[in-house]
Amino acid sequence: MNISIISPGKFKKKPPLEELFNYYKKRINLKIDLKEIKTFNFEEKKKLLFEKNQITKHLKPTDYVVVLDKDGKMLSSKDFSVFLKKKMLERTKRICFLIGSELGLDLSLKKSCHIISLGRKTWPHLMVRIMLIEQIYRSLEIIKNSSYHK
Question: Does a structural domain hold residue 85?
Fold first, then answer.
């Protein structure tokens, strides 16, 4: 199984956030692909439509798409590991996690997707990337029954 994280913005040249993201990425035995989409300061409707078009360029019809949204379903780390294990057993080729900009995501992207939450708070999208990849790593360690989660 491959995992894609599609997120607005870019890591700056070698900041601590990118290093932390790459630390977890290297520890995961799955292909993790980060797609950074450009953002512009358009008015709200135009910005959401532009970001939607940028995101959909990276999606394939066979992808299992998961939207990260503060109003989504709250999953514990163990629940998230159950979710990932189920997708592995179903032989899902690629899971795409979508992270929205400060405006969130266009509603049409959310309609047919699995929506999960990392909490009710609003977080900067660069930090959400790190929290997501750490939870992916943690979930895989739970599946392996390692001591990382304990």
Answer: yes
Interval 90-109 mean pLDDT: 91
> pTM of whole model > 0.90?
yes
Domain for residue 149, yes or no? Answer: no
The pLDDT of residue 25: 97
Reading phi first (left if > 0) and then psi (alpha if -120 to 50, else beta), residue 49 is in: alpha
Q: Is residue 89 part of a domain?
A: yes
Task: Using the structure block, give the residue that is written with the tokens 């799955």.
Answer: 30
Q: Region 45-57: what's the mean pLDDT?
A: 89
Closest of 48, 37, 46, 30 to residue 6, by C-alpha: 37
String of DSSP letters for 42-106: --HHHHHHHHHHHHHTT--TTPEEEEEEEEEEE--HHHHHHHHHHHHHTT-SEEEEEE-BTTB--
Confirm whether 30 is domain-assigned: yes
